[in-house]
TrEMBL record:
Domain of life (superkingdom): Bacteria
Gene3D superfamilies named in the record: MFS general substrate transporter like domains
Classification lineage: Bacteria, Pseudomonadati, Pseudomonadota, Betaproteobacteria, Burkholderiales
Name assigned to this protein: MFS transporter
Pfam families to which the protein is assigned, alphabetical: Sugar_tr
Species: Caballeronia cordobensis
Domain (Major facilitator superfamily (MFS) profile) ranges: 22-444
Length: 485
């Protein structure tokens, strides 16, 4: 049936279904990201035994993926501009398949490091392209929820990996566990090829008719399509710039810096300390056996998944900032409580239960706020002409900060002690809330184009998207600078 012959209700139902499909398929990138993050902690002891590895070689196996991810994120900007978001995701999917199979069949530690580097490239490319693509296809009223689905998939991937770690502790077959990730990766590849190109990317490539057709499939209603095109057109036909824009334009430098700061603070919440070292933390909290620690870790993964639904439900209703404040408060409280318990010594069942509850509270706080919201904000705050570059830089920083936090946790424990380490993370979460208050704009329901225009007009970061404010005197000066460019 042609679009014209369809009833409006039918067209909208079809559009809604198509939107869900697009959202799910693009978000599958997150699943692979999560699987690859989570699976190595369980597989590593078996790999170490198989190849008789020292600590250094093991560190390389773990961190090669992060190195690859940092490189992948950086290269993904140019790739997704040239190939388009869809083919960039497809390339990441191919790398996921090859990397998973190679790591499953690796004949030496060096090969495994190579395979993990390749997987890292895939993770980096996917973690850049998926939120960007989702932000570009999503209708603005549900943009937050659609990008949160990506984070939900990360958490599902991590949980699945934690569960497979338990399976692995029984069957002891690390090759199978690493190689099997090729199956969801193949599914992802098939799905990505069925996705439409991003309408904003098509417009920038002067392919307006195709952009309109994609929007029609996504919105189902010609009036909404036109409204969206009216918003998009004026800024979206400008070609992408990176370094040159950064050098020339102080407004762009502000949004790039904000993206970097947000990703650094996402990691400074301490989330990956819990993700990578959960069994160790549970050991400190008095859970003696390896089995107890693994199961407690699965509960962490489960809470991480469940709490992410909170963000999906509320991010487009309450807005980004209130959720971030609530999340920072919960995370700070959880870390602080854990610090105090460690200080007092976790002895007895009540103290153990309280320690687990504090950790779970922290995870819930992260999953409902900083987890999804940082990815959402980073894909929203960059102006159209520098979006690919801006998001590539913040994604790169996410991975570098991730490595830095993972690499310093054990030394922190031994230098400042367990209790102080957790209290330090609590303080960092409070600082995060302050940064949100002063610098983060409320982007709920605002079009990407308006956010970009406000930024380039010199509005304060926290005022981007607000209608009622005239640009400040400083802003007007910057407008002049921009116009001169
Ligand atoms: C972060 C990852 C983290 C994951 C946990 C993501 O948003 O970027 O570093 O491991 O959330 O769910």
């Amino acid at each position: 049936m042609s679009a014209a012959a369809e009833t409006p209700v039918l067209a909208q139902t079809k559009a809604r279904r198509f939107g869900l499909f697009v959202c799910f398929m693009a978000a599958l990138a997150g699943l692979l990201f999560g699987l690859d993050i989570g699976v190595i902690s369980g597989a590593l002891p078996f790999i170490a035994k198989h190849f008789v590895l020292n600590d250094r070689a093991q560190e390389w196996i773990v961190s090669s993926m992060m190195v690859g991810a940092a490189i992948g994120a950086l290269g993904a900007g140019a790739l997704s501009w040239r190939l388009g978001r869809r083919y960039a995701l497809a390339l990441a999917a191919v790398l996921f398949i090859v990397g998973s199979l190679w790591s499953g069949f690796a004949g030496s530690p060096e090969q495994l490091i190579g395979a993990r580097l390749l997987l890292g490239l895939a993770v980096g490319m996917a973690s850049f392209t998926a939120p960007l693509y989702l932000s570009e296809v999503a209708p603005r009223q549900v943009r937050g929820a659609m990008i949160s689905t990506y984070q939900l998939m990360i958490t599902v991937g991590i949980l699945a990996a934690f569960l497979s770690n338990i399976g692995l502790s029984y069957i002891a077959d690390w090759r199978w566990m690493l190689g099997v990730i090729a199956i969801p990766a193949a599914f992802f590849l098939a799905g990505v090829l069925a996705l439409p190109d991003s309408p904003r990317w098509l417009l920038q490539r002067n392919r307006a008719a195709e952009a309109r057709a994609v929007l029609q499939r996504l919105y189902g209603n010609p009036a909404d399509v036109q409204a969206e095109l009216d918003q998009v057109n004026e800024d979206s036909t400008r070609p992408q710039r990176g370094w040159s824009l950064l050098r020339a334009n102080s407004n762009f430098r502000r949004s790039v810096l904000l993206g970097v700061v947000l990703q650094v603070f996402q990691q400074l919440t301490g989330i990956n300390v819990v993700m990578y070292y959960a069994p160790r933390i549970f050991e400190m909290a008095g859970f003696g056996t390896h089995e107890q620690q693994l199961w407690a870790t699965v509960i962490v993964g489960l809470v991480n998944v469940i709490a992410t639904f909170g963000a999906i439900a509320f991010v487009d209703r309450w807005g980004r900032k209130p959720i971030l404040y609530a999340g920072c408060a919960v995370m700070a409280f959880g870390m602080c409580a854990l610090g105090f318990l460690m200080h007092a010594g976790v002895v007895g069942l009540t103290a153990q239960v309280l320690a687990v509850a504090s950790l779970l509270l922290f995870i819930a706080g992260f999953a409902m706020s900083a987890g999804p919201l940082v990815w959402i904000l980073c894909s929203e705050i960059q102006p159209q002409q520098g979006r690919d570059f801006g998001i590539a830089v913040s994604t790169l920083v996410n991975w570098v900060a991730n490595m830095a936090v993972a690499a310093t946790f054990l030394s922190l424990l031994s230098t400042v002690g367990e209790a102080n380490t957790f209290v330090l993370y609590a303080v960092l979460n409070v600082v995060f809330a302050v940064v949100v208050f002063f610098y983060v704009p409320e982007t709920r329901g605002v079009s990407l184009e308006k956010l970009g225009r406000d930024l380039m007009a010199g509005k304060r970061l926290r005022d981007l998207g607000k209608d009622d404010l005239a640009p400040s005197a400083r802003g007007q000066a910057v407008v002049k600078t921009n116009e001169a460019l």
